[in-house]
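Researcher: Here's the sequence for the chain we discussed earlier.
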Amino acid sequence: MRLATWNVEWFNSLFDDAGKLLDNNGWSGRWNITRTQQIAALGTVFARLDADAVMVIEAPDTARHRSTVTALTTFADRFGLRTRAVLTGFVNDTQQEIALLYDPDRLTAAHTPLDSPAAPQFDGTFTIDLDQDARPDAVRWSKPPLEVTVTAPGHGTLSLIGVHAKSKAAHATGSQARMTQIHIANRRKQLAQCAWLRARVDQVLALQRPLLVMGDFNDGPGLDAFEALFGRSGVDIVLGEDGAIPLFDPHARLALSGPSAAMPATARFRHDDVYLSALLDYIMVSPDLAARDPRWTIWHPFDTRACYDDPALRDALLLASDHFPVVIDLPAPLARGEGDPI
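Model: Thanks. This is the structure I predict for it:
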């Protein structure tokens, strides 16, 4: 089974209110890239991914006059994608939904939100002492995670959680002191969201369900100077701390190994005349899935040789988004007795 997660920048701006593609030479939301260029590039990448399911981060909007399902169904039909079924969960008001685009011939998928006192439903409110002042703070998700139960022949039932965690960037202007205050507040909220998510992870693992947590965390070990203030990143929290059952992601492990390690990247941002790279997107798996020896690949146009050596794919990845797909190829579990020593 091939699963992927991909943050598609400004996907929403490629559709009109009826969910039709705006395939024209007007500018897309991406810098110096037309809608036609971005649409064609997205079609190329989605087709080449050939995944059984893709967790789409920043999927087209669902609102009074717009529909994520309509837009993505239109897109899949345009390019003849086998991932032509669309699943959404709790919608939000940011014009950036989380959606699962999947192949209905290979698997079934359902939105199955969980709820508990320790981990409320993701469209609700989570209470945590963010600033350690002995007073509880109420936290909400601006983009509630998408909880999915997937069933596929040969793989059984899997739990997926699609994530787009709070950005720590300070989208404001002001004095340096004010900007620092905003950065710290954003990091607190991002860490709180990840604590909430980890509580859900613990709940799913207690039910002994195979689990994948996939998406954009806007965070990672050593990613910014404010991490030292709180002692860990949101990724550290979700992977598991203090004796919790750990999740595994090889790219996160590499990043955690120290500043001298070669750092993988899933995103490439233009800043003035310079491109900056960052590891923001992950597919974390439970121990039972890690034991199947899956293969992770970041479809980076320069760092992954198969992408770099294919000019059409390399160019499409650069045009389509400022993030690159993260893919996991998950072998089916061994049958009882299979692989035992002879």
